[in-house]
Fold this protein.
Amino acid sequence: MRPPTEDRRRPMTRDEIIRWLVEQDSEALGSLWRRADEVRREHVGDAVHLRGLVEISNHCVRRCAYCGISVNNREIVRYRMTPDEIMECVRQAVALAYGTVVLQAGEDYGIGREWLTDLVRRIKTESALAVTLSLGERPDEDLAAWREAGADRYLLRFETSDAALYERIHPSLPGRSSTRFAILRRLAELGYEVGSGVMIGIPGQTYGSLADDLKTFAEMDLDMIGVGPYLPHPATPLGRGGLPEAPPGEQVPNSELMTYKVVALARLVDPDANIPSTTALATLNLKDGRELGLARGANVVMPNLTPTKYRALYEIYPDKACIREAAAQCGTCLSGRIEGMGRTVGEGPGGRRHS
């Protein structure tokens, strides 16, 4: 198969994307990795931006069929961090020279509009950090208030563009009418940098469906794209094997290799986006999964700032990498790995650069 098109004005077709998704030849894939790395260098540079992740709550009202913090999981201890605990993590982010703090939680309505508004204002008053929120589907009034308070970015993964597959893994709440795509459009209208992404290898996900996801990234012109392998928690319906696979030859594997392919293709279809090399990749390959993601199109890493007493309780999937490392240890390790690749650690908030 030929390398990705050199004509950057012509978007990749669905068939081209599918051919890359099923490609197994290592020489051909080498050309994909090189092209994704070249496009990354041309559009976002060599800096790797560190986003300090704070998992502020593991409460969630959703019944996602794969997620360990689903409301249906009665076996986990629930927590919600206090503002002072969160601010201590913010101060660590500043001390470690991160440019962004990411506040992530389940869809937790114990995190009220005013509570988070006050917290965002406090972070913006006491630091120069960009604030990214990843709190699930929230009412428009919440999203507008948090943007007005100074939140810069919002992450909301659509997980799959296949509506029927999405409903099987992510059942709707009663009375909920807005789709994730409608919320993503509204976030952009409010002035957020908008991030989304998908899981790779969901049972029932075909190569055509995953190609449609990648085309959707390009059509939405996302500011941030996060992709990772499907890793169901064992205490969930899907962790117990509750969803049939696609027909033979059509099912996307939830493999490390497939994740690299999607990272590389995401870079090619949306060249300016910020794309993380995720913790899930490091979970599949602790030795050098993050580095390989960075070498194949990614330009962001999200070191964990969550206090260690809470990290194991934010178990959306099992055996997450680095849950026992202290924040400073994690930051030092990642900085060393980045510099060892000949890349630099990014300075400042590292927002999207439109070329």
Q: What stands out?
A: The longest helix spans residues 26-44. DSSP finds 13 helices and eight strands in the chain. The domain at 14-338 is CATH 3.20.20.70 (TIM Barrel). The radius of gyration is 19 Å.
